[in-house]
Specification:
alpha+beta
Length: 802
């Protein structure tokens, strides 16, 4: 069998096919004994494996010196799955089943009993005692050690007199141990300036300096601190520190660098949260997973815009999935730096060369963010705007309540007038039944059009337009009518093959818009003393949305009656006078049709028909007419009477104006001040499965073994809140893990940030790297005391600074 030394394809090329049943038969069966790791497995791995796959050297990114690293696998996947030794690539190679790859590549091969032990160990759960590292005991890095509250050192009386709090005790003890004395106490001018610059980022005014210097009371300093912490500028100063960590920007970055609409709204959320002293644990949870909180409000959803602060590439030809993955990479690495103080980015392409972070652990962390998608969410524009809206809404509700009360009072007095109105309406309905609406002949019809339009009067007074087709037009039709009364006018529109799309209009799509309709009467042809017969009611067989027939008589030049999309068909609109007018002998009738909408929306073929008689419906709405008919059948019909009373209230001189005012007031309801902001929401449909990307390339996923959401092996595990094992942990579980009592890093990192903002340098100088390559804390006991104190203070930023 050929034996090969490999580099990139060393011990386990962790992609491949499962063993065939024939190959499995060539393996020795698992040992029947209960395997002891220390006695059976540790010596075997130490002798044959860790030289190439240990702490100092990791061929193919694989380490076999600790349990976490062994289970994490290498650059190409996992070495084995617990309980499935027969399908393990590790067993395949050490068992000599691959013709090209044999492990170990040099030295003695594993014997069949040794392979049997490895198989039994894997099948029995791969047990590995805690703390054991092959090559020596696993040493816990200082940053990963559990937090314990140190006791402040006791100081000799001379130093104790200079100590005002436990922090002073730690610092003074360290100074004394190094033979150093504390610096002289700063003068009051210096103190007020330092405080103002550190807390607000602004110098104090001369008056503020003078007041503090002149204030000799014992608590003057503390009162000044409290005053500055309450200033709105405190949130602006300390919110900016957080915005820097969150890589906040108002634009996308990259070549286009387009503005991000309303990105500032999340910035203001941060400032408000800092000013309101939102506890840091809540501050963390809402930004990591505010959308996943039960009953999440809009501010909690807005907080997730923390994740939106990634670079966005809007150049042409970009791959959306590539930049989505890049954004998730950024969220993972920002979380690692901001909350954990770790440079996890190295593990995107390979297991971390220094810190105990494997590539698989990186993608397990990646899995938390992989199903968070960017989308828009409506949020209030600002807290001040919301206060104004709330105040105005209360006043509006009060105004509505008064009008409703006034209307209710007025309605109690309607009955007498209502009875009179009912009687008159019944009489009018009876009269209308005896004199129905009917057509009147229109003789001697002549028609002219503006702009050179030719209007030809055809058979039955149908008019056809031809010739020029201007964008607007006015048609004038004159004829004679002979009747005892005139009630209204019907405008019929007809299709014609000579018109665009068969009409009935002359617009390119066959539509029209009648924006005005005026009817006049005169005793003679000159119309010198013409009287307008004002049209006040309208109905149509069809009307375009937002273009009803009533628009033709509303006096507005850009509203009218139109019929899209029902072009190519006949339609009509009927217009009525307020009441029929009596005619004394034959009358000359002039009708002016205005079409000022534009776009050649003019009539192409139409007909005008004068009307006489009385409307059967008296212009009443259909439900009111139905109520009258119901009362005719049953005089005491309560439901019908209620409908009629409601209608009468709208036309009564007392209640009508109140109803109109109430409707207009309702329309003026204050609008909630809101805007759309880009945030993160959890993907619920078709959730993505996370895979390890070879060398960080999203086009090369290792689909053999999905990455399940999990924390980092050097820290306590993430505990999913769901008991159902089928439900994976999500961002809310991650957020709660970050601020859990078991996790020592976030409080250490947070107080170190605060210290660095106040003193220029952190207790750990490398504020974003608490890993092996980072600096050790200059005052480790003080760092841990501050971290535990932060928790004791219930994560209050202001209390910590105070």
């Amino acid at each position: 069998m050929r034996r090969v030394r490999l580099s990139a394809l060393s011990l386990f090329v962790l992609l491949g096919t499962a063993l065939t049943s024939a190959a499995e038969d060539q393996l020795p069966p698992p040992a029947k004994k209960t395997v002891d790791f220390s006695k059976d497995i540790k010596p075997l791995l130490a002798k044959h494996c860790v030289a190439c796959h240990g702490a100092k050297k990791q061929e193919s990114g694989l380490r076999l010196d600790t349990r976490n690293h062994t289970l994490a696998g290498g650059d190409r996947g996992v070495a084995f799955s617990i309980g499935e030794s027969a399908k393990s690539l590790m067993i395949r190679y050490v068992g000599g089943l691959d013709p090209d790859i044999t492990m170990p590549p040099e030295g003695d091969l594993l014997s069949k009993p040794q392979v049997a032990l490895l198989r039994a160990w894997i099948d029995q759960g791969a047990k590995w005692p805690k703390g054991i590292r092959i090559g020596g005991p696993a040493k816990t890095h200082w940053a990963y050690k559990p937090l314990a509250r140190p006791t402040p050192p006791k100081l000799p009386p001379a130093l104790a007199a200079k100590s005002h709090n436990p922090i002073d005790a730690f610092v003074l003890a360290r100074l004394a141990a190094n033979g150093l004395a504390p610096s002289p106490e700063a003068g009051r001018h210096t103190l007020v300036r330092r405080l103002s610059l550190d807390l607000l980022g602004l110098p104090p005014s001369p008056d503020e300096v003078d007041r503090f210097v002149a204030d000799k009371t014992p608590d003057a300093y503390q009162r000044l601190v409290d005053k500055l912490l309450k200033s709105r500028h405190f949130g602006e100063r300390w919110g900016r520190h957080w915005l820097d960590k969150a890589r906040y920007a108002d634009s996308d970055g990259y070549e286009k660098d387009r503005p991000r609409p309303n990105a500032w709204r999340w910035r203001d959320w941060v400032i408000d949260a800092v000013n309101q002293d939102m506890p840091f644990d809540q501050f963390t949870v809402e930004q990591i997973a505010g959308d996943l909180l039960p009953g999440a409000n809009e501010n909690q959803v807005l907080a997730t815009a923390f994740h939106r602060q990634t670079l966005t590439n809007t150049e042409g030809g970009t791959d959306k999935e590539q930049w989505r993955v890049e954004a998730v990479f950024d969220r993972v690495e920002t979380t690692g730096a901001v909350w954990l103080g770790l440079t996890v980015g190295c593990a995107r392409c390979h297991s971390h060369k220094y810190d105990q972070i494997s590539q698989r652990e990186y993608y397990q962390f990646f899995a938390f963010y992989n199903n968070g998608d960017e989308m828009n969410s409506d949020v209030v524009t600002s807290a001040d705007a919301l206060k104004t809206f709330t105040r105005e809404s209360a006043a509006h509700r009060k105004q509505l309540a008064k009008l409703e009360t006034d209307l209710a009072t007025a309605r109690t007095k309607l009955q007498p007038a209502f009875e009179v109105w009912l009687a008159k309406q019944h009489q009018a309905l009876d009269a209308a039944g005896k004199d129905p609406i009917r057509d009147l002949p229109l003789t001697g019809l002549a028609a002219t059009g503006s702009g050179g339009i030719k209007l030809a009067v055809q058979k039955d007074n149908v008019v056809l337009a031809s010739g020029p087709n201007p964008v607007t037009a006015v048609y004038t039709l004159v004829g004679r009518v002979e009747a005892s009364s005139l009630s209204g006018l019907r405008l019929e529109v007809h299709p014609d093959k000579s018109l665009p799309k068969n009409g009935p209009g002359r617009a390119s799509n066959g539509n029209f818009v009648v924006t005005g309709l005026k009817m006049e009467l005169s005793d003679n042809e000159s119309f010198a003393k013409a009287t307008e017969a004002k049209l006040v009611q309208a109905r149509s067989t069809f009307a375009q949305d937002k273009f009803p027939a009533t628009n033709a008589i509303d006096g507005k030049p850009k509203t009218g009656w139109a019929i899209s999309p029902q072009m190519g068909k006949p339609h009509n609109a009927t217009f009525f006078l307020a009441k029929p007018i009596s005619l004394k002998g034959p009358q000359h009738l002039r009708v002016t049709i205005t079409q000022s909408y534009g776009g050649t929306h003019t009539l192409g073929r139409f007909r005008l028909v004068p009307l006489t008689g009385r409307q059967k419906n008296l212009g009443l709405p259909q439900p009111v007419l139905a109520a009258f008919e119901a009362r005719n059948k049953k005089a005491n019909d309560k439901k019908a009477t209620a409908v009629l009373l409601d209608h009468f209230a709208t036309v009564d001189k007392t209640t009508g104006p109140l109803i109109k005012q109430l409707a207009e007031t309702r329309k003026k309801s204050p609008k909630r001040p809101q805007m759309s902001v880009r945030v993160i929401r959890q993907r619920t449909k078709s959730p993505r499965t996370t895979f390890l990307f070879q060398r960080g390339d999203f086009l090369r996923p290792q689909k053999t073994t999905p990455a399940i959401p999990a924390g980092l092996g050097v820290l306590p595990p993430v505990r999913p809140r769901h008991k159902d094992p089928k439900r994976l942990a999500d961002r809310l579980d991650l957020a709660r893990w970050l601020i859990s009592d078991d996790n020592p890093l976030p409080p250490r990192v947070a107080v170190n940030h605060t210290w660095s903002h106040l003193f220029g340098k952190g207790l750990v100088r490398t504020i974003n790297d608490f890993g092996i390559r980072g600096d050790k804390p200059t005052h480790p006991a003080l760092l841990d005391w501050l971290a535990t104190e932060y928790r004791r203070l219930k994560w209050s930023r202001k209390a910590l600074i105070r």
